[in-house]
Amino acid sequence: MKSTIMSVSVAILFLELFVVAAMINISFCNGNSYVGCIDSEREALLKLKQDLIDPSNRLASWNTGDGDCCKWAGVFCSNITGHVLQLSLQNPFSYLGGDLREVKAGSNYERSKLGGKVNPSLVDLKHLIHLDLSGNDFEGIQIPKYLGSLENLRYLNLSGAKFAGMIPLQLGNLSNLQYLDLSGTFLSNYDLHVDSLSWLSGLYMLEHLDLSQMNLSKASDWLLVTNSLPSLKVLKLTKCQLCHFPPLLSANFSSLKALHLAINNFDNSLFQYGSWVFGLRNLVFIDLSSNQFQGQIPIGLRNLTSLRHLDLRFNYFNSTTPGWLSKFNDLEFLSVAWNSLQGTISSVGLENLTSIETLDLSGNSKLGGKIPTSFARLCKLTSVDLSLIDLSQDFSQVLDTFSSCGAYALESLDLSICQISGHLTNQLLQFKSLHTLELGHNSLFGPLPPALGELSSLKKLDLSNNMLNGFIPLSLGKLSHLEYLDLSNNKLNASLSEIHFVNLTKLTWFSASGNSLILKFNPNWVPPFQLETLQLRSCHLGPHFPSWLHSQKYLSFLDISNTRITDTIPRWFWNSSHYQELNLSNNQIYGVIPYFDHRPLPYQPFEFGLLDLSNNALSGSIIHLICNGDNKSVIISLKLSKNYFSGDIPDCWMNWPHLQVLNLDDNYFTGNLPISIGTLSSLRSLHLRNNRLAGIFPVSLKNCSSLISLDIGENDFFGSIPTWVGERFPRLLTLNLRSNNFHGSLPVQLCHLTFLQILDVAHNNLSGTIPRCINNFTAMATINSSNQKNAIYYFVTRGNIVFEDASVVTKGLLVEYNSILNLEKFQRILEI
Asked: Would you say residue 16 has pLDDT above 70?
């Protein structure tokens, strides 16, 4: 999205590739007669293909019928000798860019991965100087040792190919190598590692080295070895589990242009022992983001006056913005985001950055003041991120600052959570190049101006959590490049129809939750877009279940809770489910959950999962939902409360190993609690209140030692309260056993629950005395607070926070605290 962020590194890469291409010397000069491939090399390629898995048939041209292997896909030969010089077998598609549909199974990227193994016949290509296998899937096999026999190799790229294990030392024999990329990907579970980088020492011609995502935690010689490579221009060691920066007596990095050390665990030893870094006068790119640096931004950086890219984000720097930044006349990218910078946004140090294109000061909540008027001189700015900075400024003043010359270049403006106020004005029309405008969580008010529809380049528009009101202008339907639109949590109160979306063919994210919008769509409407996220909570969508959702093939995040739906859920909706989050709660949806032939519902291929069907009129058994199929669900939160579900609670919870929140309150479940509940070792909240469950206190719960909240009140459980309740749940905050048939005395072991803040055992058949150690419940005596930051919640997902809730009976009245439970407000809740 921010096209200029990597401009320097991309330029370096293209330069290197140009040099490599020149070295390959594939001759197309006039007068040279064409020479076909060598027979022995053709046979070697056919053997190579034989061991490769090629699901998309990329290597269809590799066959004996076409004897000239130099015409095969990915094969490049010398026109002079006919020898194979280059094998470019990289995945032609990329997962980069964040397009969810492109990383899903079955996408072009997935289908185009080569797999299998690399046949040793590769070493018969003795003249090979360029080998690229990047972006494929070799499923954790080791990098072949015999690659070290390709002595003429100058370019080797195995990045993202899912090799694993120890790096073969034989790669150190490739003395002609100039480009080496063994980096992994953030999406891979495979681990490449080495205990030492000494095998690199002989690669004197190496100019580009990328070992990102490789485990180098044991390679204490990483700096000593890389320092011995005199030709090195680019060094990438991102996310390599590096912690300590060793001392270096003298630096030989005189050729170094780009240094990537992001996402490690470096502390200030870099500045203690790494003074040589500040002497790299030719350095144009440095990335030190996502480490453990503290204190002031090191003054030694001021010596690197050739820098074009400086990235210090996600550290713990707590100084003011340094004035010496004014020396960086060539700086194009600057990010000090998400540190603890203090003071005001001073024009000192920033006003002279006339080459700056990307400026990111976001996440520094202690930084404030108004945007300096001197920013008007930064005429090359294309991306500005000042989110989470206390500007306390009128929006029109902000636009005035950037409108003098920046309006023509500015492509991205993020002012989220900045305390800006005022109207959205027609001043926006000056910013014709804007493709990203983020103004969420501010105090903007008034109507949406029709002029928004004139920002024809917009791809992302976030106006969420403001006080905007009135109609949504039809002109928004003209934004044909729009991919992301968030209008949630405002005071919009009009109708939405097909015409609002007529040209939004690229829309993948749409949120209008928390407004009073009425969605009026023809039942046969087929939207022009394919959404990945749709959030319409509290809008008027019903009474019928929206049939147009049937056309959405990539929908993964869906929230249509509290939208006045009074209908059954069509079977096509269940059968096409592929949701990571699904919230249909607080409607009047009725009917039963049908039987599914294949997978459990909903199928969850990703890490997080939320399924909320609570507060509807669904009935029948839930066995098809819980027990269908053998796949392991990765759902974290399952809420089915306040329905008419009945029968036994199914005994298939071993298929839900990631579950943290289970709420079955207010249904008609009967029988005993199933034994498999005890397999939910990650469970933190269990609510079974107001059902018809029976039996003794569920012994299976003994294994759920992560519980924070347990509510089995208003059932027919009987017997004594076991002593292990006070021993197995050390982090328990709420315990509700109210209105059951428990008898005997209150076990003294409950006093071990020192974090307990709600205890309700009233309306049972308990006898004896109350244990005197009940005064151990000191957590019930905390200071009152209404601050929601103290509320208990379990995880935050895309647009959803799963809060704890509780039903508390005090002075005979039942009070329900849903989604905003702050236990510090109820410090004396003890019902016995």
From this structure: no
